[in-house]
Amino acid sequence: MTQPGEEGQSPPQGDWRREYWRRNLRLMLALLSVWFIVPFCGGILFIDQLNQVNFAGYPLGFWIAQQGSIYTFLLLILIYAVRMDRLDDKFGVSERDGEGRRQ
What contacts 24+ positions apart, CB below 8 Å, involve 66-71? Predict the structure, then answer.
C-alpha cells in the first residue's frame, strides 16, 4: 500500500494534505458557482428572454427555475463524487481495498 502523496506528480510528503485540501476547495467553489449562476441567471436575471423559448411545453425560464435547478444540483453532486473519488485515488486516500472494491 502506498502512502498518501506518493502516486503521480503530487506534492512532497509533508505537504500533501494542504494540496489535497486546496484542490478540494477549488472544486467546491467551482461547483458552488455553477449552482448559484444557473438558477440565478436562468430563473431570475434572464427569465424574460428565456421565457420566449418553450421547453417541454413550458417557458424555458420557468422550467430552469423549477426543474433545471434541481437537475443542475443533481449533476453537480455526481460531478463532485466522481472528481473527489479521482482526487482520493491520486493522493492515496481512497476508501477501496486492493481489488478496487469499497471497504
Answer: 68/38, 68/39, 68/42, 68/43, 69/38, 69/39, 69/42, 69/43
pLDDT 10s digits, 59-99: 999 999 999 999 999 999 999 999 999 999 899 888 877 77
Please give the Cα distance from 55 to 88 (Å, whole number): 39
Distance in angstroms (rounded) separating the CA atoms of residues 82 and 80: 6
Q: Where are the alpha helices (DSSP H) in the chain?
A: 16-40, 47-50, 60-63, 69-91
- Output Rg (C-alpha) for the chain, integer angstroms: 19
- Which of 21, 41, 43 is CA-nearest to residue 33? 41
